[in-house]
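== Protein entry: sequence and backbone fold ==
=== Local backbone shapes as whole numbers ===
==== Amino acids and backbone structure tokens ====
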Amino acid sequence: MEIVILVSLLSLYCDFTDAECLVVSPARLVVKHGDPASSNCSSDTPVEMGWEATQGGAGLTDNKVKILNWKVDSLTDWNSKPTCFTEGGQCQKQLNITVYKLPDRVSISYRKYPDPMVEGHQYLLQCLVQNIAPIGRLRVTFYKVSATGEQTELDTQQKSKDNIKTPENGTYTLDFTPGRDDDGAQLLCSAMLDLGPEGPQPPPVMDSNRLNTNVHYKPQITSPGCFSMSITEGDTLSLNCSANGNPAPSYDWLLPHADPNTMEERSVVTITNMAKSHSGNYTCFARNPLGNSTCTVNVEVTVDYLPIIAGLAAAVVVILLVVSCFTYSSYYKHRRMGHYQLKDMLPRRHKNKHVVQHNGTDQSFM
């Protein structure tokens, strides 16, 4: 009776402390399915010990030993639980072992294929991870890659299935609502098997195929913008209407001097030699099957008075010059006619004047 009580107390003691019982090292193994595995069982004092396992098991040693190795060349048992024990099962220690397998394939698809996507509508994405173990350590992340290559994380999911050791297929879903900026982007999912510090580092990751997105959205006018402007009479007006839209939008212009029921079916409107009658609102319409967008430019035609003023000033200067020249000419003639007599202009006759020619020279004597 006393011996039974002593054995029971010893077994209970060994269950709660490893100091005087068995030690398994390493205590935890992460092994890829089909790879070799090994661990040591040791004791502070020599004892008869053995390994109980579906693979690599060993009975009690004939002699007392301090250490006993467990080893398999190819671990294929998903639920392997190697346990080291001593004679009579007084002490025992189980090796914590995880057998893993990377997925055969990771794929992403739409639950119902959209043809095409429409801005603001919701679509269900589905990521399928095939034949992976243990599925409880799997983390699936959905990503969006923009047309410029920028990658954005959409969501990360992990299922609580720690009790499942054998390979499983995992299906993960995400509701995706695209916007116009998502046109031309790509969608994918990534499967990461996170097995902790004892597992492979960094954790193995497998990406899915990529889904190209074609998002349809109504137009949004980007140019010329809605504003007011003024233009000088006689100049040329040119307005170019452009918009972002998928499918590509068509354009119409409603002009202020045209019939309200008539539109110009073009993206650019050009008017030469602008007149006051061309003042008013110029409205662009951009349309596609999903909707339309409008933008109005208010145009005011102004008259440039500077050339007129300059012309009038030049005319006044010319008139003043003509008047000045006429006035000066009249005044000058009047002054000259008032100081000179016709008789003053004729030669005078001299009395007692004799002209003698001497030696060919005329000489006059008074």
Observations:
- The longest strand covers residues 291-302.
- Residues 1-19, 350-366 have pLDDT under 50 and may be disordered.
- Residues 181 and 268 are 26 Å apart (CA to CA).
- Helices lie at 2-16, 306-339, 342-345.
